[in-house]
Amino acid sequence: MPGGRRQNKGRSPYIYGNPLPAYCTMKNLPINSELFVANRARFVKEMEANSLAIFNSNDEIPTNGDALQPFVQNSDLYWLTGITQEDSMLILFPANPDAAYREVLVLVRPNELKEKWDGKRLRQQEATAISGIKTIVWLDSIEGMLQQWVHLCDIIYLNTNENDRKASLIETRDYRFAASMKARYPLHQYRRSAKLMKQLRAIKSKYEIAVVQQAIDITAKTFERILHFVKPGVMEYEIEAEIFHEFLRNRSDGPAYHSIIASGDRARTLHYVSNNEACKDGEMLLMDFGAAYGGYCADLSRTIPVNGKFTKRQKEVYNACLHLHNYAKSILKPGISIIDYTDKVGEEATRQFLKIGLLSKSEVKNEDKTRTETRAYRKYLYHGISHHLGIDVHDLGTRTAPIQPGMLFTIEPGIYIQEEQMGVRIENNFWITKTGNTDLFKGIAITVEEIESIMKK
Question: At residue 209, does pLDDT exceed 70?
Answer without folding.
Answer: yes
